Amino acid sequence: MRQGIDTVEISRIDKLCRDLDSEGLLRFFSQEELDDAGKGDGRLQKLAARFASKEACCKLFPKEICLGTIEPHDFSVSKGGYGQPRIRPSERARMVMNRYRVASISISTTHTATNATAVASPEPMTMAVPWYGRLIYHALPLRRKVVLENLHRVFGDTLDEERIIEIAQAYYGHFVKFLIEFVQMAFMTQARRTKMVRIEGFEHLAEAREKGRGVLLLAGHFGNWEVSTVAGMAQFPQYRGALHFIRRPLKPAWFNWMVMRRFQKAGFGTLEKSGSLDDILDLLEDNRIVVCIFDQFTIKKYGIPSEFFGHSAHTFKSLAVLAQFTGAPVIPSSSWRELDGTHVLRFEEPVEVEGKGRTKDILSRNTKRFNESIERIILRHPEQWIWMHKRWKKVREDAKR
């Protein structure tokens, strides 16, 4: 990616500070930026340098600026350990950076008596691709066409072909690790399983459950979801029997038997995707946690079209219906594998669910919000999502089968 450069006249910032009160300035600067600039000499130069930094960062992503996906205030400037400027992106900006595979943005600023200039330089993300991932990609390309088509839908306008293939190869490597870990877990002691998984954001799940309406856990095929969930939730014995997964039977049958047996031993309940509405309502009434796998295609009967990474994808409407009519909080959850082989099971803050307006419009908007949560999770570790699934399949194709 190219660098972003911007120059700001200090007189422009002077006028901004004279025209706006402290609350108005927060539309342009974070409180930390205003505090760092101080009150005395040099305040205007410091604020001008920060404003130029924001604009320089935006110039790295011209398409997203034009679409309104991000704005200058999505980038704030903080001080590093030695006083050097450091860019802190908002959640929206971090999502855009992830889609371009930008790990961080380094910033360099300077100013004269009349102008402040900033140069933003993107630092690319690196991705470890194991040799067996490359081997399988070339020699045993399981659904490689589907994998590449899906990756091009998401990254086709932000990454070149080499980097897209890199993600695909890393995905095949992840798939091999997934299977090995699934088998190894059967022979692990409980102590080893506990060390294998770190929990983040558990307070979000606990606080949501305190509301007494049950919890809808928004989940998908992230990381090694089978291993991280079983090993992670075992650290909270008080939640044994509280989690119930809505899921389809897996194929082949022997693999489904192994997974279900492990889930049952861990104290998890399972529900069929169809015909289980009464059971779900009973569980939420009893303040249980219902896990909804949300990142798969569904047929017209059970879903609605919703945008997913900028493309229409038929999406389950059941989660939006349940959230609206039960008031149960919706908590996004995810897992991923770290470079050292350990796993993280993370619970996010609840998704804000709309409840006013026409029912059809509410379902559409809330479903889009849930999809956006899934997008953010996928972009953090794209090689650890199930790219071989036909997420954007046309409805009529499924109806013929």
Mean pLDDT: 92
**Which regions contain 5 or more consecutive residues with pLDDT less than 50?**
397-401
For this structure, the CATH topology of the largest domain is Glycerol-3-phosphate (1)-acyltransferase
**Helix-residue proportion:** 40-55%
Secondary structure class reads: alpha/beta
What is the annotated CATH architecture of the largest domain?
Answer: 3-Layer(aba) Sandwich
Work out the radius of gyration.
24 Å
The major sheet is characterized as: 7 strands, mixed
**Could you give the order of strands across the largest sheet?**
6-14-13-7-10-8-9
Number of domains in the coordinates? 2
Would you state the CATH class of the largest domain?
Answer: Alpha Beta
Give the termini distance in whole angstroms: 44 Å
Total helices: the number is: 17
Shape call? globular
Number of strands: 14
Bin the strand percentage.
15-25%
- Oligomeric form of this entry? single chain
Question: What can you see in these coordinates?
Answer:
- The chain has 401 residues and is of the alpha/beta class.
- The protein folds into two domains: 4-124, Ribosomal Protein L22, Chain A, CATH 3.90.470; 176-399, Glycerol-3-phosphate (1)-acyltransferase (3-Layer(aba) Sandwich).
- It is 45% helix and 20% strand.
- The protein has a seven-stranded mixed beta sheet, with helices on both faces. It has a three-stranded antiparallel beta sheet with strand order 1-5-4. A two-stranded antiparallel sheet has the order 2-3.
- Strand 2 and strand 3 (85-89) form a beta hairpin.
- Helix 7 packs across helix 9 (161-185) and helix 15 packs across helix 16.
- The two termini are 44 Å apart.
